[in-house]
Amino acid sequence: MSITLKDVEHVANLARLALTDAEKAQFTDQLNAILKYAEKLNELDTDNVEPTTHVLPITNVLRDDECRESLPIEKVLLNAPDEEDGQIKVPAVLE
């Protein structure tokens, strides 16, 4: 697979870029060099490689959810900067 000058012009048009002829030629050469380098991956033997989404095995490190007794409201409100009617009062964020 290779990139042609027409491909570069098409992408430049989609991106609304005005390229000179020299820039078009330069980008064509650079993109072809990138594709040539990426084709090296086809040389690898991946027949016995299992497909993975991560290099390392990932396990859930979170604890199981458990129902527990919560703090009494009086103790929670001791940490609040201001309280009103048993609720934490905060500054208004909307006018």
UniProtKB/TrEMBL annotation:
Enzyme class at the top of the EC tree: ligase
GO MF entries: asparaginyl-tRNA synthase (glutamine-hydrolyzing) activity; ATP binding; glutaminyl-tRNA synthase (glutamine-hydrolyzing) activity; transferase activity
Keywords, sorted A to Z: ATP-binding, Ligase, Nucleotide-binding, Protein biosynthesis, Transferase
EC id: 6.3.5.-
Pfam families from the UniProt entry: GatC
Entry-linked Gene3D superfamilies: Glu-tRNAGln amidotransferase C subunit, N-terminal domain
Reaction(s) the record says it catalyses: L-glutamyl-tRNA(Gln) + L-glutamine + ATP + H2O = L-glutaminyl-tRNA(Gln) + L-glutamate + ADP + phosphate + H(+); L-aspartyl-tRNA(Asn) + L-glutamine + ATP + H2O = L-asparaginyl-tRNA(Asn) + L-glutamate + ADP + phosphate + 2 H(+)
GO annotation, biological process: glutaminyl-tRNAGln biosynthesis via transamidation; regulation of translational fidelity; translation
Stored HAMAP family: GatC
Functional summary from the UniProt entry: Allows the formation of correctly charged Asn-tRNA(Asn) or Gln-tRNA(Gln) through the transamidation of misacylated Asp-tRNA(Asn) or Glu-tRNA(Gln) in organisms which lack either or both of asparaginyl-tRNA or glutaminyl-tRNA synthetases. The reaction takes place in the presence of glutamine and ATP through an activated phospho-Asp-tRNA(Asn) or phospho-Glu-tRNA(Gln).
Assembly: Heterotrimer of A, B and C subunits.
Family under the similarity heading: Belongs to the GatC family.
Protein name: Aspartyl/glutamyl-tRNA(Asn/Gln) amidotransferase subunit C
Lineage: Bacteria, Bacillati, Bacillota, Bacilli, Bacillales
Gene: gatC
